[in-house]
Amino acid sequence: MVNDPLSNIPSRPSVTGTGQPIIFVHGNASTREVWTDVVGHLKDDHCCISYDLRGHGDGCPSDDTLSLDQLVEDLEKVRAATGHQRVALVGHSLGAFIVARYAERHPGRVDWISLMAMPAGRTEGDKESAADLLQKMKTMGVAQTMPVLSSSWYTESFTASHPGALQKRLDQVLAIDEAVFLRFYGLYSCVDVDASLPHIAKPALIMTGEHARGCGAEVAANVAGLMHDASTVVFADMKNGILTEIPEKVAQSLHEFAASIREI
User: Fold this and answer.
1) For the chain, where are the alpha helices, taking DSSP H only?
2) Domain residue extents for the chain
3) Mean pLDDT for the chain?
4) Contacts (Cβ under 8 Å, ≥6 apart) of 63
5) Dihedrals φ, ψ of 47, to 5°?
6) Are the beta carbons of 51 and 9 closer than 8 angstroms?
7) Cα–Cα dist 92/221, whole Å
8) Which of 93, 107, 98 shows the shortest CA–CA distance to 23?
9) pTM for the whole structure
10) Does the entry feature the keyword Hydrolase, yes or no (predicted)?
11) CATH assignment, 14-122+192-263
């Protein structure tokens, strides 16, 4: 029986396009679907690879041992299974934490990275607020506390012109098993890769919305300042939902960044 290299990974990846391989890593309570529009703008020049984190979409079940190291190992399994020796990595939110830690652990496998909407420099107050929200979700339920988070996703103009977008995102969140959501949110709210960033020598593109909650323009500048070779793109007036609101601009920034590295 032929060994299937995809049998030992969190989910069977989607592969679209040709060219330099890029692996896209989504965030908490999301799925690979969040990258669809970005990939649509990049597939002519890049081999775009996306997958579902464990416990999300088609991902394998998540258990109580969830850790950032476990998710980094899942990413390495995806990389190995696709057969690419070196890849670019793009991560959003929790996915950005995974990408940053992976780039530190496996520098020989990485060409460049992009970290989107990734918090850094969290204060004790930030951590206390996240812990309080997590406790409310555990007590009241995820559905009842979602308005606290959903207000940070999209701009008012976008929700007005796309009336179904917010509900679609809410439905996606609520489709995740509540125990899994809480486990992942607990990890996201306390994980810290600040110490890893100075050890990443690969070119990095830091992207975020100007008003993204917990990871806006100032935080993006702080992230870039901790790294050896990082540049920033801050989308004016945007919140956290840049992949949904302006996927073409996100894709263009990634394309231009990749092209600039090839020219060096």
Assistant:
1) 36-42, 68-82, 94-105, 124-140, 142-150, 156-161, 165-175, 178-190, 217-225, 242-245, 247-263
2) 14-122+192-263
3) 92
4) none
5) -85, 105
6) yes
7) 16
8) 98
9) 0.95
10) yes
11) 3.40.50.1820
